[in-house]
């Protein structure tokens, strides 16, 4: 255990670092002077999560490390110190290698920490944080976002470890994680999940894509494949003139939290490790698996020439039927799977753009830099395209509210200082370390009514489970209800039914399938049906989900998650 005196010593040293480095904060890159669309979009290294022996797929063990190295985000930027995933320091990339797993075949990953003794970014010891007893090393732990596996492989926030496992968190159990890949085919991603350090570890670069494939189910769909199937990991960063990543070193309430701020935003938009890249495409259909790996930025994507998107999946599951849109909103950590038909473009090039305010929904409008994402350079002549988007994709059982074994209320709170600045955020008015209140029977379904009493849109992520959103309804007389909730923290006693009577906000058609993240609008109650079993087979998990350290659910704005909009989720038999 780290003593109060130890935290004070860390805090004094931390403030000293801030004073020494504060001069650099005025030397930020003016990103509007960087030319856009000069770097080619990288395709990240591919790691197969399975072997094939005599034509039969077999489990595979991977060794992936976390390394400090430099990375060039733009042709005209100096190399940037980063933390990166890879099979070696030389091959480590931002984002890390894409892991391609096979449905039904185990993938074992030994995650190794080769990071230095000190972080490359400022962090705040006054929020609940992983602090090594030796005061040495950068704690890390990996969560496979969207994965369905036992608690010991889930990447608990307190299962962290430093280099060579010299220091380990109280929930640490094992060096090698087992990803069973028994779930439905779809898109996942892996990222750091360390207590109090998730926002800085991801900002430093610890992110990567993971795909669960099921050829016998997906092949007949004949969606674009091979070179015409690309993963796009999108996030935002700001840089100093020396190339280093800029993150604030002074908090919005410095007398309470010297470094923590409620959201991080950068003006350079990065896709697959390059700022505003370009991709040469043929005049045909392409599939793009788009992951929003930003700390806090929402994206509202659209094409500048009116080209449309055909949605085939959302988060880690296929949709039942394709959905066409001209634009769509993607919150932090959400994944959308779309097909774009460039043969329909009347232009030789088109820009993927963004117009989501930040913070979302009532923050600043986008500017010249963060309103552009990447550019596509389209070949002149159309070509034979044998891929298609079928009228039916993959059908899963229709969710049934009457099957729910219990109804719960989950309430989002934000707390402020005397100056009106946020100090921390809670779910159900409880800190993370308070005993679990969401104790769910494995194999069952529950209705969760998520009440957002803050002014932010919070992307709520639930580990292990999948859910369907039934409705979002605006609160009436919200301040009166909020006053009651601040006193009682009990939606039933505060007569939620009297206030959840506002207009219904339509759930977008492309988000009506099974998801693991959903955007909880401010001033609304969102009704979801949470399923703690496989959706493709309706079977219970073949592993024991009741073990320690359990699971969690949390806001995926990382600055909120770290301070401490996260609660335990326990399963029982």
TrEMBL record:
CDD domains: CuRO_1_BOD_CotA_like, CuRO_2_CotA_like, CuRO_3_CotA_like
Membrane topology designation: Peripheral membrane protein
Swiss-Prot/TrEMBL keywords: Copper, Endoplasmic reticulum, Glycoprotein, Membrane, Metal-binding, Oxidoreductase, Signal
Residue ranges annotated for the Plastocyanin-like domain, each copy included: 139-215, 266-344, 418-569
Subcellular location(s) of the protein: Endoplasmic reticulum membrane
Main location: endoplasmic reticulum
Name of one Pfam family that matches: Cu-oxidase_2
GO cellular component: endoplasmic reticulum membrane
Cofactor list: Cu cation
Signal sequence extent: 1-24
Record-level Gene Ontology MF annotations: copper ion binding; oxidoreductase activity
GO biological process: cellular response to phosphate starvation; meristem maintenance
Annotated family: Belongs to the multicopper oxidase family.
Protein name, entry field: Multicopper oxidase LPR1-like
Annotated source species: Pyrus ussuriensis x Pyrus communis
């Amino acid at each position: 255990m780290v003593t109060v005196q130890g935290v004070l010593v860390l805090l004094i040293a931390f403030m000293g670092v801030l004073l020494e480095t504060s001069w650099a904060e005025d030397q930020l890159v003016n990103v509007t002077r960087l030319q856009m669309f000069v770097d080619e979009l990288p395709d990240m290294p591919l790691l197969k999560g399975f072997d094939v022996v005599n034509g039969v797929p077999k489990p595979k063990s991977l060794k992936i490390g976390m390394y400090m190295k430099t990375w060039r985000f733009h042709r005209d930027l100096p190399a940037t110190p980063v933390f990166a995933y890879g099979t070696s320091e030389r091959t480590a990339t931002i984002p890390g290698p894409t892991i391609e797993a096979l449905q039904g075949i185990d993938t074992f990953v030994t995650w190794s920490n080769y990071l230095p003794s000190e972080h490359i970014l400022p962090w705040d010891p006054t929020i609940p944080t992983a602090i090594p007893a030796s005061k040495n090393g950068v704690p890390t732990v990996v969560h496979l976002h969207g994965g369905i596996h036992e608690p010991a492989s889930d990447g608990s926030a307190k299962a962290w470890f430093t280099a060579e496992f010299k220091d380990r968190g109280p929930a640490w159990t094992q060096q090698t994680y087992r990803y069973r890949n028994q779930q439905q085919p779809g898109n996942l991603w892996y990222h750091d999940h360390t207590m109090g350090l998730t926002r800085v570890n991801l900002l430093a670069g610890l992110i990567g894509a993971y795909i669960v494939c099921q050829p016998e189910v997906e092949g007949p769909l004949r969606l674009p494949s091979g070179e015409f199937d690309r993963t796009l990991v999108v996030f935002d960063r700001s840089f100093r003139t020396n190339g280093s990543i800029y993150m604030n070193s002074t908090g919005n309430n410095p007398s309470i939290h010297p470094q923590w701020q409620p959201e991080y935003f950068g003006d350079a938009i990065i896709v697959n490790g390059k700022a505003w890249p370009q991709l040469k495409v043929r005049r045909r259909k392409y599939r793009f698996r788009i992951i929003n790996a930003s700390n806090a930025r929402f994206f509202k994507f659209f094409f500048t020439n009116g080209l449309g998107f055909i949605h085939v999946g959302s988060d880690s599951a296929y949709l039942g039927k394709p959905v066409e849109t001209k634009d769509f909103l993607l919150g932090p950590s959400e994944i959308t799977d779309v097909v774009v038909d460039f043969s329909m473009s009347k232009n030789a090039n088109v820009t993927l753009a963004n117009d989501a305010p930040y913070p979302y929904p009532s923050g600043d409008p986008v500017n010249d830099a963060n309103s552009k994402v990447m550019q596509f350079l389209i070949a002149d002549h159309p070509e034979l395209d044998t891929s298609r988007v079928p009228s039916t994709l993959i059908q899963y059982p229709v969710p049934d509210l009457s099957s729910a074994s219990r109804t719960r209320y989950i309430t989002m709170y934000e707390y402020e200082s005397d100056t009106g600045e946020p100090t921390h955020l809670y779910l159900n008015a409880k800190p993370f370390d308070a005993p679990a209140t969401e104790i769910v029977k494995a194999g069952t379904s529950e209705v969760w009514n998520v009440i957002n009493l803050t002014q932010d849109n919070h992307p709520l992520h639930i580990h292990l489970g999948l859910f369907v959103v039934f409705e979002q309804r605006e609160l009436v007389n919200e301040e009166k209800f909020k006053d009651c909730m601040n006193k009682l923290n009990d939606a039933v006693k505060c007569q939620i039914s009297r206030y959840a009577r506002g207009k219904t906000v339509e759930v977008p058609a492309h988000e009506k399938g099974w998801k693991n993240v959903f955007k909880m609008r401010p001033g609304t109650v969102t009704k979801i049906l949470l399923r703690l079993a496989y959706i493709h087979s309706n079977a219970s998990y073949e592993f024991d989900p009741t073990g320690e350290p359990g699971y969690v659910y949390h806001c995926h704005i990382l600055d909120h998650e770290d301070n401490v909009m996260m609660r335990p989720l326990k399963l029982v038999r």
